[in-house]
Amino acid sequence: MTNPLTPVSRRAFLAGAASLPLAGLGATRALGQSTGNVDVVIVGAGAAGIAAARRVAAAGLSYALLEASRRTGGRALTDAALFGRPVDLGAFRLYDPATNPLVALGTEARAPLYAAPDAARLFVNGREARESDYEDYVAALRRGERAIGAAGDAGRDLPAARVMPDLAPWGQSAAFILGPATCAKDLDQVSTVDFSRAEPRDPGAFVRTGVGTFISSLAAPLTVRTDTAATSLELGPRLVQVVTRKGTVTGRFAILAVPPSMMASGKLRVGNLPARYRAAIERITLGAYDHIIFEWPGNPLRLQEDESVQVKADSSRTFSLVARLGGSDLHLMEVGGKLAADLADGPPNSGAAFLKEALGRSFGSSLAARVGKVHQTRWTKEPYALGAWSCALPGAGNLRRAFTEVVSGRLAFAGEHAHETLWGTLNGAWASGERAAAQAIRALGGGNAALAQ
Ligand SMILES: Cc1cc2nc3c(=O)[nH]c(=O)nc-3n(C[C@H](O)[C@H](O)[C@H](O)COP(=O)(O)OP(=O)(O)OC[C@H]3O[C@@H](n4cnc5c(N)ncnc54)[C@H](O)[C@@H]3O)c2cc1C
């Protein structure tokens, strides 16, 4: 996910991070053991499921944390083999350091966090933009953002594209940042109401060893049943039964910490779910957004480590870049919305072909020819994600609230989709997991009441 051109003070970030209270578990607390019958069954060990399990365990309740794949972390995934250094294939920034609980946990764990550059650079016709271009572009971006926000605030739940003013000559660039880069969807698929509730995201912090590595490390004190996909969940009058390929787990409460795409696709069937929740599952859908990671030696654009680059676009087939990841020769192209979905549906070299064409178009063919190895992610094709992150379809903005409620006294949802203002982020996923755990603890009337707040 990219960040709009919001300047943020690095000093404020560092001071904020240092002054955060140390959250998390007491170091010596033994975490709950998993059995066939438990207090809380948690499905999904991404950020939300990990947060939920830590809190449930810390409250002294037993849990089973079921994970379909062979690893934890979900859409936070670091690969160290592809390029011989850690590269995040999924989430790669920790937004909003002053309030992000993951930054507090990372600071406590001495994870190698460092501040992202404060603002993005803008390129026009292969050159860095003039000061006046920056001003015009930022003004256009803000006008678009305000128009969508105003419609949403007024309760007019429309396709965001319909309320966009004419922002020529910056219309395509602004539409990319506000749509595919922020919502993983083109603006005709974005609910003005959902958009208007999203909190602004600052450029945040990176983790030198990878955000995915860090998120997985937070699962280290937990017992996780990997390779255990849940296929159905039945809400009974007193118990919840979760059927997996390896048997049935019964709990007094369940937390569903999987993307809504799992239920919408029928991969995970939930019985006895009231219509309101079914509607939310069908209409808070995951969009497409991918990373095309590539070697580009010699620092062709003369950029600092981890600088973001946006370009003046003349079509919706556009992108943004994050340059020189961690000071290396690796760069990351961000694509989203219909373009990303099409590239993911395309042949194996579709990402590399687009990359070279787009770099050639934006910076000249001689620079594009310097590209080395390329790797393209395809989150819409990942079997246990089926997309990048959620954004409500037009008309469905108010449905997201359903994901924050307890269903029939014994089921709560967790995940980025289950946060009304921080959807699409790791911090939103984490907060939703903690909220769902608190709901479970309260419903069971047990555990440590202080931790259930
Ligand atoms: C390319 C990309 C870049 C991003 N960049 C950022 C960023 O820079 N900063 C940021 O804050 N956010 C970013 N995001 C969004 C962020 O990754 C997500 O918001 C967050 O990881 C979601 O966490 P989650 O726990 O809700 O879901 P997930 O991480 O998807 O976790 C769900 C887990 O459930 C498992 N599961 C699914 N089905 C089943 C089943 N049937 N049974 C058992 N387990 C199951 C999955 O395998 C997975 O481990 C990005 C996302 C993508 C795709």
Any overview of this molecule?
The protein has 453 residues and is an alpha/beta fold. The chain has a domain at 35-115 and 206-285 and 393-444: 3-Layer(bba) Sandwich (FAD/NAD(P)-binding domain). 31% of the residues lie in helices and 19% in strands. The protein is built from 15 helices and 21 strands. Strands 1, 2, 9, 10, 11, 12, 13 and 21 form an eight-stranded mixed β-sheet that branches. A seven-stranded mixed β-sheet has the order 7-6-16-17-18-15-19. It has a two-stranded antiparallel ribbon with strand order 3-4. Helix 2 (47-58) runs parallel beside helix 15 (426-444) and helix 4 crosses helix 6 (171-178). The structure holds flavin-adenine dinucleotide. Flavin-adenine dinucleotide (FAD) is lined by residues 1, 43-49, 66-69, 74-76, 90-93, 95, 229-230, 257-259, 262, 267-268, 289, 291, 377, 379, 384-385, 388-389, 415-416, 424-427, 429.
Helix content: 25-40%
| Distinct ligands, ions and cofactors found in the model | flavin-adenine dinucleotide
Query: Which CATH architecture of the domain at 35-115 and 206-285 and 393-444?
Result: 3-Layer(bba) Sandwich
Q: CATH topology of the domain at 35-115 and 206-285 and 393-444, anyone?
A: FAD/NAD(P)-binding domain
Just give the CATH class of the domain at 35-115 and 206-285 and 393-444.
Alpha Beta
In round numbers, the mean pLDDT is 91
Query: What would the principal axes of the Cα set say about the shape?
Result: globular
Beta-strand content: 15-25%
CATH-assigned homologous superfamily of the domain at 35-115 and 206-285 and 393-444? FAD/NAD(P)-binding domain
How does the helix and strand content classify structurally?
alpha/beta
Query: What is the CA-CA span between the terminal residues?
Result: 31 Å
Describe the biggest sheet? Answer: 8 strands, mixed
| Rg over C-alpha atoms, rounded to the nearest angstrom | 22 Å
Low-confidence stretches: 2-35
Helical segment count:
15
Report the strand count: 21
